[in-house]
From TrEMBL:
This is Probable M18 family aminopeptidase 2. Its cofactor is Zn(2+). Keywords: Aminopeptidase, Hydrolase, Metal-binding, Metalloprotease, Protease, Zinc. The lineage of its organism: Bacteria, Pseudomonadati, Pseudomonadota, Gammaproteobacteria, Pseudomonadales. Its EC number is 3.4.11.-. Belongs to the peptidase M18 family. It is an enzyme of class 3 (hydrolase). It comes from the Bacteria. The gene is apeB. CDD domains: M18_DAP (cd05658). GO terms for molecular function: aminopeptidase activity. Zn(2+) binds at H82, H156, H401.
Length: 429
């Protein structure tokens, strides 16, 4: 099963260079699995068993399977993840011409590791809004081919490079896309109009705006002498989105199950389609009823917030608490923080650990060093929005927030197995 899941993840990552594309890919898998898309502008069925999904902003998705035996007393089984990853976003007026090179100015999205973006074969993808025949429309584009690069400065000109230096995003990250002839000029919006025509056969009168990201064209791969690792971009957190999707698609339909994949986690989740917005609560109230019954339902539910965890790095083992260093290929990690950077409680951790033991899935624990800060995820945000009990978990990875991250090739199967068991569980704590 591991090989099939790993290849499926690699294909999903390849088709999902941006949150827009990830949401589109999730929707396609759900459609193939019998899920029906709902439009937020229409009236919805309330409490009717079935498979539904809804998107917002084209970058967030919620799928709800109302079980055949749905009862308020049984609660909901929710799995949450996020579709966005740290990256370089193209500025609204990005064109720069310096020393005869046409470059694109970028803005850093989220807490990206910047150094790995140098000397990579980069492409461009995202959403373009345009006018055609008097109508304003939007379309996703993906150039796929390498068309940009951010070259490093040779060590001969920066003798301190290996001593560490602060990267200036404004000056050092504009990507080179072409070398211009004397007197030649290029227009970025014309380039996007050409791509719309080439990729979709759309003839745009005007490209009005865009949300575009650079991404590494190197495909994810299973690597290592014994193929024990998966290397790829956006493992944080498309790995969890894919695991949740696979678990949901195999749910037996008896219990009511929810998959939540929201945008903007890397920048705080505070948006109309982020976890700190109203999207999830509005969706659940419209599908499952409102008022006192909704509060009662939430109090009988449980959310598994799935986001990557920091595996113990052999070169930097001192960055971990000695008793809490998760290993790659040793199973999902329960993430705990007394200051509520993670929403895990002893009850929710105990239930998840029980699920792992019952299904012969190895399980680990993570607590950050007491003298280091702790990251967070959608778990505490969703818990505070809905009042739902939550456990924060994730698969151990290296190089989190790099352009290319590393995870264990056996761990995806572990996570899918325990999430399937969670969706099928007859009772919650």
């Amino acid at each position: 099963m591991s090989n099939t899941l790993n290849q499926g993840l690699i294909d999903f990552l390849q088709s999902s260079p941006t949150p827009f594309h990830a949401t589109q890919s999730l929707a396609q898998h759900l459609e193939a699995g019998g899920y029906r898309q709902l439009d937020e502008r229409d009236s919805w069925p309330v409490g009717v068993p079935g498979k539904y999904y809804v998107t917002r902003n084209g970058s967030s998705l919620i799928a709800v399977h109302i079980g055949r035996q749905h009862r308020l007393e049984d609660g909901l089984r929710l799995v949450g993840a996020h579709t966005d990853s740290p990256c370089l976003r193209i500025k609204p007026n990005p064109e720069l011409v310096r020393q005869g090179f046409w470059q694109l100015g970028v803005e850093v999205y989220g807490g990206a590791l910047l150094a790995p973006w140098f000397d990579r074969d980069l492409s461009l993808a995202g959403r373009v809004t345009y006018r055609a025949a008097g109508r304003v429309e939007s379309q996703l584009i993906d150039f796929r081919a390498p068309l940009a690069v951010i070259p490093n400065l040779a060590i001969h000109l920066n003798r301190e490079a290996n001593q560490g230096w602060a990267i200036n995003p404004q000056n050092e990250l504009p990507a080179i896309v072409a070398q211009l002839l004397p007197g030649e000029s290029r227009d970025f919006r014309d380039l996007l109009a050409e791509q719309l025509n080439r990729e979709h056969g759309i003839i745009a009168d005007t490209v009005l705006d865009f949300e575009l990201s650079l991404y590494d064209t190197q495909k994810a791969a299973v690597v290592g002498l014994d193929q024990q690792f998966i290397a790829g971009a956006r493992l944080d957190n498309l790995l969890s989105c894919y695991a949740g999707l696979q678990a949901l698609l195999s749910a037996d339909g008896e219990q009511s199950c929810v998959l939540v994949c929201t945008d903007h986690e890397e920048v705080g989740s505070c948006s109309a389609c982020g976890a700190d917005g109203p999207f999830l609560e509005q969706t659940l109230r419209r599908l499952l009823g409102d008022g006192e019954d909704f509060v009662r339902l939430m109090q009988r539910s449980l959310l598994v917030s799935a986001d990557n965890a920091h595996g113990i790095h052999p070169n930097y083992a001192d960055r971990h608490d000695g008793n809490h260093g998760p290993l790659l290929n040793a199973g999902p990690v329960i993430k705990i923080n007394s200051n509520q950077r993670y929403a895990t409680s002893s009850e929710t951790a105990g239930f998840f650990r029980h699920l792992c033991l019952e299904n012969e899935v190895p399980v680990q624990s993570f607590v950050t060093r007491s003298d280091l800060g702790c990251g967070s995820t959608i778990g505490p945000i969703s818990a505070s929005q809905l009042g739902v009990r939550t456990v924060d978990i994730g698969l151990p990875t290296f190089a989190m927030h790099s352009i290319r991250e590393l995870a264990g090739s056996q761990d995806l199967a572990h996570l899918v197995k325990v999430l399937r068991a969670f969706y099928a569980s007859l009772s919650l704590p």
